[in-house]
Amino acid sequence: MSEECIFCQIVAGEAEASVAYEDEATLAFMDLRQFQAGHTLIVPKRHVRDIYELDKKTGSALMAAISRVAEGVREAVRPHGITIWQSNGAPWQEVFHLHFHVLPRWREDGLLRFRPPRRKRPARSDLDDQAVRIRAALGGD
Ligand SMILES: [Zn+2]
Questions:
Q1: Ligand 1 center to residue 45 CA distance, Å?
Q2: CATH assignment of the domain containing 11
């Protein structure tokens, strides 16, 4: 636990939260600053700074919890859709305890501006180059 981490304080019961789901490794609670009603955060109970610090076991538990919470949000809130959202590094990550947003979506909800204004369509050779660089970084060929 990190003493100054608000999410660790929530996990420890030292800070207030509206808990929507809990299991051995994860906790889900309502985001204080919601884009939409039903906007939920899922965190690992142990302090993990970001996706780069995530171990496979905790990652598996998180994905299972995200899936469960998404089912709950869909049933309880009945949105048109759900976006799962996770950020790493400033300024995109505001709390440095790994967290995933489950964000209910409605058509015309105004959140479409999260899309980049125009997406590029790189040539296949560029996509192949990118994949080769990532594979090499992962220790592949
Ligand atoms: Zn923490």
A1: 8
A2: 3.30.428.10
Q: What is the pTM of this model?
A: 0.88
Query: 115 vs 96, which has greater pLDDT?
Result: 96
Q: Is residue 95 part of a domain?
A: yes
Alpha helix ranges (H) inside 78-106: none
Residue 27 to residue 125: CA distance in whole angstroms: 43
Structural domain boundaries, residue 102: 6-115
Residue 73 resides in a domain = yes
Q: How far is the CA of 102 from the centre of ligand 1 (A)?
A: 19
> Measured between alpha carbons, how far is 78 from 71 in angstroms, rounded to an integer?
10
Distance 65 CA to ligand 1 centre (A): 18
| Alpha helices (H) along the chain | 6-11, 56-77, 124-137
> How many domains in the chain?
1
Peptide bond into 44 cis (omega under 30): no
pLDDT tens by residue, 98-127: 999 999 999 888 876 666 667 788 999 999
